[in-house]
């Protein structure tokens, strides 16, 4: 299956959000990546329900919601009601991760778990079969426009090997510092979905950059 591209609206122009959403609607992108930050789990605050509901009103593609918040359980149903298709919680923010994943599924969404750069993928072994997606953070969460951490490539390879036996359908998403230069290596390492903020919205033509990212021919790269 062709890899998925999820432009991160964190890098969009919030004063022209509808324009940027419509650009993504008409592009080769697959999902909208929606970064929710609470100022507690991460040292930054992005936006909450009113903005997400406004995004949902205009978006014609699924919302891939990345919750960088403590106590995500408290808000699963509200994020589902606000239009999330995928809800990803952080491993580091969940005491009862299995229960949280069940709650995401009960709310009718795909369930994802995100790992900070320091968190080993092996910690997901006993829950991998219950997940739809694992999001491997390739920067420390909290900000767009950061530099890609190269160790991510090892983590992706390890996760791909684990998923081959435990959950072959798993979507392996990578988030942070992804661009046209490292995308090929990331595909080869096993990632199947790519978040990109700066690489898209700071490009001369964001829509063309989405097409370049989407159509990078992984077939020409030896997987
Ligand atoms: O979750 C996050 C940051 O915490 C990301 O989704 C960023 O928004 C990605 O931005 P770039 O690194 O691609 O600019
Ligand atoms: Fe994100």
TrEMBL record:
The keyword Manganese applies. Its cofactor is Mn(2+); Fe(2+); Zn(2+); Co(2+). Pfam families: Ribul_P_3_epim. Binds 1 divalent metal cation per subunit. One of its GO terms (molecular function) is metal ion binding. It catalyses: D-ribulose 5-phosphate = D-xylulose 5-phosphate. It is an enzyme of class 5 (isomerase). Its EC number is 5.1.3.1. Gene3D superfamilies: Aldolase class I. This is Ribulose-phosphate 3-epimerase.
């Amino acid at each position: 299956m062709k890899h998925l591209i999820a432009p991160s609206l964190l890098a969009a122009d919030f004063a022209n959000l509808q324009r940027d959403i419509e650009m993504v609607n008409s592009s080769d992108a697959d999902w909208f990546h929606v970064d929710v930050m609470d100022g507690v789990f991460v040292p930054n605050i992005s936006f909450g329900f009113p903005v997400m509901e406004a995004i949902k009103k205009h978006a014609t593609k699924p919302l891939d919601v990345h919750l960088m918040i403590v106590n995500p359980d408290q808000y699963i149903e509200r994020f589902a009601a606000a239009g999330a298709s995928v809800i990803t919680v952080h491993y580091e923010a969940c005491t009862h991760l299995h229960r949280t994943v069940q709650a995401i599924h009960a709310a009718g969404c795909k369930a994802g778990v995100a790992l900070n750069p320091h968190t080993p993928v092996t910690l997901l072994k006993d829950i991998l079969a219950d997940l739809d997606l694992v999001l491997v953070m390739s920067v420390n969460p909290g900000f767009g426009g950061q530099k890609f951490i190269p160790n991510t490539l090892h983590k992706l390879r390890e996760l791909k090997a684990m998923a081959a036996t435990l959950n072959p359908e798993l979507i392996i998403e990578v988030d942070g510092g992804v661009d046209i230069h490292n995308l090929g290596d990331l595909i080869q390492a096993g990632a199947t979905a790519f978040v990109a903020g700066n690489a898209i919205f700071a490009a001369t033509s964001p829509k063309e950059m989405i097409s370049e990212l989407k159509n990078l021919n992984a077939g020409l790269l030896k997987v």
